[in-house]
Design goal:
The protein is an alpha/beta fold and about 200 residues long. About 30% of the residues lie in helices and about 15% in strands.
Length: about 200
C-alpha cells in the first residue's frame, strides 16, 4: 500500500488528502516540465497532515498540480523586484521610474515588475520563490507582503533581501516631497550616498 499512487488511493479513500509543504516542494521539483491535466490539478491541496494521521506515511506519486510562478514583466537579471499598486503604469509614471533606476545605475531589463492585481491570491511562499534580492513595494499590494511591518521610505533587510516600501508610484509622481523621500531612500538602498 505504501507505493500506491494518488489515483489508486482515490478509489477507496473518500477523504481529501493533504500534503505537507515539504512534500509539495518535492512533488513540484519532480513535475518540472511535465504536463498536468485539469483533473490532476484538483488532486493537490496546500494544507498539512497532522503527525498522528494514519495516511502521513503513504508515499504519493506526483499526480499533482504545480502552480505557475508569479509572472514578472522584465528580465529580472539583477534580482530587483518592483511591486506596484496600479494595474498598469501611465507613461509619465513609467518614465519617472525608468529615470530613477537609470540614475541609480540600473536599467529596466535588470528588474522584474508585478502589479498588485497579479499578486492577488498568491501565497507568501510563491512570493519568496521569486528570490528577489531587492524589493521595492509601491502602494498597497493585495498580498501578505503588504502586511510586513516595515516603515515607509526606510530600508529593511530580512534574510538576504532588502525591502523598501513607499507610497503608490502615481502618488509619488505628483508630489515633489514624496519624490525627494523616495530618491533619498533609493540612494541609500543602492549605496549611492544622499546628495540634496
Amino acid at each position: 500500500m505504501e507505493n500506491e499512487n494518488l489515483a489508486a488511493l482515490g478509489t477507496f479513500i473518500d477523504d481529501t488528502l493533504f500534503l505537507l509543504s515539504e512534500d509539495r516542494k518535492k512533488i513540484e521539483e519532480e513535475l518540472v516540465g511535465q504536463d498536468v491535466s485539469p483533473a490532476q490539478e484538483e488532486k493537490i491541496i496546500d494544507a498539512s497532515f497532522t503527525t498522528s494521521s494514519p495516511l502521513a506515511d503513504i508515499e504519493i506519486t506526483p499526480a499533482a498540480y504545480v502552480s505557475e510562478p508569479i509572472p514578472l514583466k522584465g528580465d529580472f537579471t539583477k534580482g530587483i523586484l518592483i511591486l506596484h499598486e496600479e494595474s498598469t503604469l501611465s507613461p509619465s509614471v513609467l518614465e519617472m521610474l525608468v529615470n530613477m533606476l537609470r540614475a541609480c545605475g540600473h536599467s529596466m531589463s535588470e528588474v522584474g515588475m508585478v502589479s498588485s492585481e497579479t499578486m492577488e491570491n498568491r501565497s507568501m511562499e510563491e512570493f519568496q520563490a521569486i528570490n528577489a534580492h531587492v524589493v521595492l513595494k509601491f502602494g498597497r499590494i493585495k498580498h501578505p507582503v503588504n502586511q510586513l511591518p516595515f516603515p515607509a521610505y526606510e530600508i529593511h533587510t530580512e534574510d538576504a533581501t532588502e525591502f523598501l516600501f513607499a507610497d503608490a508610484l502615481s502618488s509619488i509622481s505628483e508630489d515633489k516631497v514624496l519624490k525627494r523621500k523616495l530618491w533619498n531612500a533609493v540612494q541609500n538602498l543602492f549605496n549611492l550616498g544622499t546628495g540634496n
